[in-house]
Structure formats: C-alpha cells, structure tokens
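ok so for the tutorial part 2 we go from a plain amino acid sequence to predicted structure tokens. step 1 is just haveing the sequence, like this:
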Amino acid sequence: MLKRLGEIVPQIRTFGSVSPCLNSYFTVRVMLCPHIKKFCKTKVMQNNKGDISHRMAPDSNEPLKSRGLRFSTSGKNQRTEVEFIGRSPAFTSILDTIEAIAARKCSVIITGETGVGKEMVARQIHRASDRSHKVFVPVDCTTLTGQLFESQLFGHLRGSFTGAVDTTLGFFRAADGGTVFLDEISEIPLELQAKMLRVLQENAVTPLGSTKSCPIDIRVLCATNTNLSEMLKEGTFRADLYYRLNVVCLEVPPLRQRKEDILPLAEHFLTNQSIFYGEPLKVLSPTAKKLLFNYAWPGNIRELANAMERAYVLTTGQEIQPAVLPFELIIADSTAYPKHELPTLDEVKRKIITETLEFTQGRKIAAAEILGIERRCLNRLIDKLDIPLSQTKKKAGS
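step 2 — the prediction. this is what the tokens look like for a chain of 398 residues:
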C-alpha cells in the first residue's frame, strides 16, 4: 500500500525518513490525508470508525450558531462529532469569538491555565475556517531548542548537519495551506524568536543547509499559560514577535469559572469510556454530581477527564458513587463549609477555663481541681490561650 501511495504522493519517500525530527504518525497524517480518499475504496473507509477518514477535517462546515452541548461539523458524506462541549455563558462567548475570527487569516494567541482546552479551541478555529480541508499541525514549543528548532520547523537538506540522512520538509512547509498551532509559545528561547519572527513576516522559510527560501501559506495559532506581557517587561519575550502574533487574544477561562460545563463534560467523558470498553453507560449519582460541581478543578478539563476515567474503571455497577472519585474531591468537599461554623478546640478550652476561673473568682488552685488538671498545666493553658485573669476576677466580683 505504501509503495502504491508513493507513486501518488512522491514526497512520501522524502518525508518518511524524518525520524530525528518528526514522528511517523505525524508523517502519515500530514502527507497522506489529502490523497487517502483517492486511493482507498469507499467500503474500507466506512468499515472502521477510527480510520483516517474520520480524523480528516470535513469538506464543509456548519455555522457556529447552533449552540448545543456538542458542537458538530458535517462533511459531504458523513457527520463527524467534535469534542467541543459546554453550555455556560463563557463557552458561548468562546464560540462567538471563534465564529468572528475563523474566516480571517489573522494570528491568534489563546491563553488560559493548563488543561483548559486551548488546543481544542485552536482545532475548532481551524475546522470553522476555509482551511479546514487542509492539515492542522500542532507543535510543542517546549521541545524546540537550538538546531532542532530550525530543523523541525523549517526543515533541512540532506547532509546539512550530522545525522541529517535525508531531506525533510519541517512543520511549516508540511502545513502549507493549513494551520500551525504553536503550543506554549512562551517556551521558545529568546535567541530563536527572531528567526520565528522573520518567517512570519516574510511568509517563507529557508531550510537548514539551503540558501533558497520556500514560500508558505499558513495560519499561525498560538497558546500559552504564561503572561506574555510580564515576559515583555522582564525581557524574556521579544516585543516585535508578541505584537506580530497578538492580533486577537482569546482567553479560555478555567473550569471553576464555568461550572455549568462540568457535568456535561463529565458525562461526555463517561460516554467515551463506555464506547472504548464496549460496555453500557455508567451514570453519576446525585452525591457524586454535587462533589464534581463544588470542586475547584485546579487541573481543569484534563483533571476532570482523568477523574472520570478513574471513576469508570473502579465502578462495578451502573451508578458512580463518591467512593470511587479521587480523594482530593472528597477532602475539598469536607473543607468547603464556612469556617467557625463549629468552635475550634482551643476556643472550647478557652471558654471552659474562663468560666471556671470566673466561678472560683480567679483562684487557680480551685479552678484546677474543678477541671481535673494540675495547677502547672492550667497555667500553661492560660498563657497559651491568652486568658486575662483580671477580667475573670471583675466578672466574679460583679
């Protein structure tokens, strides 16, 4: 099959030997998606719901105006469900922003805490754009350092450095016509940000070992959980690159600020687990729902997904109980009550000792006998709890 595909897509042989820079899954996905429909029979594509046809971007898009729990896009011959779920006002606002910017070519910086779903937002922008039939290429910027930075992003020629056994395209050229998602853009070293800026300004890349620039047509989406404005002040992020990328800033709020999305997302993750294991759907008990709703979710959607996977695999029946939820949720619920609703132990001790001293008119020996403790122990408690003896005598005298 690969031999036949090699005849259809000549670049496959060249791009298939990029193991030092790009993994094989990315290679097959980037290079074969535009051609796979021409090669495979229709019945093969319809047999397996997990095959590559279901991973491809649809040929056309539904408008974003349908505000259901699950946002969907439809192709000519199939309907593909997109895991973009929510019903909170914040989620609706995100959809409105995506609808406004999807058809544009401007770059976007997506901000938010770890685990809020920044890449999912980026994918949704791509799906709703006129580039949806082209590739979406996610790039983890935390791995881009030194020579590897240029090689992975811009490609290289054979023999351009030790280990360059073949020519590679790089992420930017492979995504030509599509979208590049630069995840954790703040992690790119300062000395390499200038090279990134030049590529974005000139819309062309020069592979390592080459003097010829290659024009590219890409849309750049970025994400970060760091305050780039603070990095500008500290001098760790270039101002010119920041203003080149920050045309639109889309902030994804944390899950604790959009609690209406917690239960729909939890139910969605449970549905995914039941499909994965081929088992009947398991549901959350009312108490479990309350725990999920009240929890702060510092890890956001990623933490919620992991919690639901744990709850699913540990539940033998059809209803998920609080006992199978992560311990952090139960502890957080027990500490969620208002402080001082019940007195603390020190407050109780202070009250009892004060009332006893008032009864004995400030005589410590008598108070110690009533309390059943030694006088030295009583003195230590009086000092520790800061009990004023003068007030106990006045109240007793009055």
